[in-house]
Amino acid sequence: LLEATMGMMPQQVGPIVGALGLDQFPAIGTAVFLKPNEISSRTIIRYTGDGKSGLGSLMTFRKSNLAVPAWVPEDAMQVMILNYDFQKAFDGVVSLVKEAGEEPYEQFQEGLDDFQNEFGLSMQDDLLGAFAGPIVMISYAMPSANSTDADADNPMANPLMSGSTNPTLIGLKIRNRKAIEQFLAFFEQMGAEVSEYMGATIFAAPDMGDGPVAEAAITDDYLLFGIGPTALVRPTLQRMGGRETGFAGVEGVRDAVAPLPKEGVGLVVANYGKTIANSLNVLKALASLTDEMAMLAKFPIPSAAVLEKHLGWSAGVLLFEPGVGLIADSNWRFKT
User: Fold this and answer.
1) Are 43 and 318 in contact (CB under 8 A)?
2) Based on C-alpha coordinates, what's the Rg of the chain?
3) What is the spatial distance between Cα 327 and Cα 331, in angstroms, rounded to a whole number?
């Protein structure tokens, strides 16, 4: 694969394969099952290593129950949960750097020393050790291209074009609030505004006018980071104090998740009809920017309403079984 995609000679590929342990991933297989209103699949990436060398040393997943937290809102477009041990994975990073040679390893160690001198924290023991459990990433749909806020004479005023990414919120379960606050205090020195809200410490990036709102918040249990056209962190803190079922209670979500394993190392649930519609809305906005982009408008782009009417929810669970490899089960639902 490296020879074909990167034009390398066999003698060049060998050292890379050895250093990354790519020979420990000897095979991949996929099975797809078709039903009247859904497509399901299972993909296996075979792994024969011991988890102590190459890329295998970075596969420090933790198997757990994959329930979506109640604070995830029902209007989310996509939710991803990954249970990963960052502290343990750091050992794998060190191993890979050592394999790269003495000079890169010395530079790496110097960087770690600089980090500890700057923040008074050990990268592995204090900062990465402060993270306790799953990462939760939530994506929301961009504002509609037909929003009344759009300015026909100024396409960049369109809400779709005011930010480069979908509104996104990331939540990380933590076990050491003090270490995280000590690290984020650096951003206060860089101009971040610090405030308290519902028992959380909030670090907000300086107001950028028409730019996105970027905020981080620390509670006793979570580190939250949100970026989007509007504030995402404070509404999430409010939901954490409530009892709504939220995203997990949406009928389409329940149906997509139901046939999949309840435990694993990762979960992705997405309204793929809305995801495709959101991408097409971005294309429509791009079509109004320049004459060169106007050609996009000539294509018969389906409306968001049509896509969301017929395309439903998808879900996938990722498992890691030592001696077997990575196993991904997925389920894609259609509306009839």
Assistant:
1) no
2) 23
3) 14
